[in-house]
Amino acid sequence: MNKSKLIELLLIIPLISVLAACQNYLDVVPDNVPTMEHAFSNRNEAEKALFTCYSFLPNEGNPDYNPAFNAGDEVWTYWPMTEDYFSLDSYNIARGLQNKASPLMNYWDGYNGRSMWQGIRMCNIFMDNIDNVPDIADFEKQRWICEAKFLKAYFHWYLFRMYGPIPIADENLAITASPEDVKVVRQPVDSVVNYIASLLDESAAGDDFTGLPLTITSRATELGRVTKVAALAMKARLLVTAASPLFNGNTEYQTLANHDGTPLFNDTYDPDKWVRAADACRLAIEAAEAAGVQLYTFSSSQITLNDAQKQEMSIRNAVTEKWNNELIWGATNDDIGNARPSYWIQLFACPQLDPGVTNLSLKGKFAPTLRMAELFYTANGVPIEEDKTWDYNSRYELRATTSDDVGMQPNYQTVGLHFGREPRFYASIAFDGSTWLMRNGTFNIRSKLGQHSAKRQSRIYSVTGYYTKKVVNWNLVATSNQVTVEPYPWPIMRLADLYLLYAEALNESERSEEALPYINKVRERAGLSSVEQAWSEYSTNPTKYTSVAGLRTIIQQERGIELAFEGSRFWDLRRWKLATRVLNASVYGWNIEQSTYEDYNRRLVLFRQSFDNLRDYLWPIHENALLINPNLVQNPGW
User: Can you give the residue ranges of the RagB/SusD domain (predicted)?
Assistant: First the structure.
């Protein structure tokens, strides 16, 4: 971190007014108070201090502030952009422009007003002073302490996932600390993981009536605050990440060491890390199911839908229905203080739907790549290149639609790639010739040149020809004068994610048969048959699921599909050490500036991505930080 940040972390910072981080409980913010004694003089002031801890959470629902959206290969956007963005950092990372002189999305020193180290310090201040509050009940104090421990763990986790081995800020440095005490060192990966896991264990400790609640019961005021289930689920994600190839036996980082020779990566693979991860996943699932968390399925008596539409809304609303019963923990903060965590991603994703309405707030620029369109299964639930009944070689050739083609307009033409695909494909992605179901009607997407969803100017269009339907709440309504958006908490963790993490950990622990039911739960909700049935009947590799390596590939693709456009793929490709292969490839889209079926439906190379095997898996530390603190060492390749 730079010098100013080090000084900032040593000083007792005032509790300043911060942006509201939740639609319900963080609309109360701390006053600008001069003394720590006043900040913890009573329950109300202490609660403001707790909400200050929450305020440092990264803005994970905004597509420009979360690297997992635009910095990878799931979506692409026209270039250059002169407006319609908050930050260009993630787009530049995707284009290979990360650097150590001025690191992009630099959460080490602070980015978008969020400093993870300052957040950690605030949590430490809170825990150091909460016992001084005279008018707080013990059960409430214990809950708040557990919340602060969770947030402290989460800030460490966020840095760990980006930078790998990091310093551990277990206690705040005193104002009188010596210069040498300030010059902290990075801790080995295993030490960092164990420390974060221990904090999460402490935050989740106790029965249903002590510490963190199992569920949020005061839904009008506390939705978005941490629960035991959230703490256990985040521990599961942490340990699955730590057991994955990037951090488990990574020999390419064996030379990364502190100046005293302490290695920061253990280059010996440890299978027990997967066993530990599987145990953590199991405990998290048991707690989630005990709390009533379950895979979401659409049900409404207020509107009549056919079976295919109900299936689509089961998939879409698992993400976009506010506080639905699949959500384990959702981000409720945004960058403006208006408690609209998914507001901007919806506007960035939604195209012009109604040919009679044009509204420039609908950007349609959050555009899935052709690679993502090809990732989804066929209707038979297997990869398109494996399905022996699906014409893979003719996937780019035009075909005519009929009234029997679900998710598409009849009497239209589009490529074979869009026919005979699984329900999640049509629920997640829209394209020229597809339909888009909203509560106020079904709209036809027509995006060839001159049509209503097409490019009309130098901005507000999909550069690939695809649109991200999945992240748009179906209650969005646009008129010529305004757009009404129903924000939802951005899903940091939902049950389908946890099921697939468990399946992965079981498979890597050589318990593949135990993994299959959890994959199949997710597939069943998506309208697909089991892995065993789908591969046995339709795949050219019918026994693929019977080996650890084969099921690993299935699980990885299942995660890519189920969690598409939710900020998972970016980190999954890194922890699996697959980014070197996947992200050294061209980004493709359709020839969107054409008006005929034949010309529009031709592939175009939009960009050639590159990914350095040594350098790009971890973020660079700002080179100034290394000058200020010579005890820090830089990440490999930087």
Answer: 326-638
How far separated are the first and last CA of the chain, in Å rounded?
16
E strand segments, 101-140: none
Give the separation between CA 620 and CA 98, rounded to whole angstroms: 8
Q: DSSP states of 507-563 as a string?
A: HHTT-HHHHHHHHHHHHHHTT---HHHHHHHHBSSTTGGGSHHHHHHHHHHHHHHHT
Average pLDDT over residues 485-499: 97
Q: Residue for token digits 């913890």?
A: 40
Instruction: Please give the pLDDT value at position 636.
Output: 97
Alpha carbon distance 279, 173 (integer Å): 35
Q: Look at residue 312 in the predicted model and tell me its pLDDT.
A: 98
Contact 250, 244 (CB under 8 A): no
Q: Pairing mode, if any, of strands 367-368 and 327-331?
A: unpaired
Containing 413, the helix (H) or strand (E) segment is strand 413-415
Task: Flag whether the pTM goes above 0.90.
Answer: yes
Kindly report whether the peptide bond that precedes residue 188 is cis, defined as omega within 30 degrees of 0.
Answer: no
pLDDT in tens, 109-146: 999 988 999 999 999 999 999 999 999 999 999 999 99
Using the structure block, give the residue that is written with the tokens 């440890």. 270
Asked if residue 8 has pLDDT above 70, the reply is no
* CA 174 from centroid of its chain's CA atoms: 35
H or E segment and range at residue 493:
strand 490-494
Q: Are 476 and 468 in contact (CB under 8 A)?
A: no
Alpha helices in 364-511 (DSSP H): 370-375, 423-428, 495-508
Strand-strand pairing, 75-76 and 367-368: antiparallel
Q: Please write the tens of the pLDDT for every residue from 363-406.
A: 999 999 999 999 999 999 999 999 999 999 999 999 999 999 99
Angstrom distance (rounded) from CA 17 to CA 224: 20
How buried is residue 260: exposed, middle or buried, by Cβ count under 10 Å (0-12/13-18/19+)?
Answer: exposed
Burial class (CB in 10 A: 0-12, 13-18, 19+), 337: middle
Instruction: Give residue 213's Cα distance to chain centre.
Output: 24
Interatomic CA distance for residues 505 and 603, integer angstroms: 38
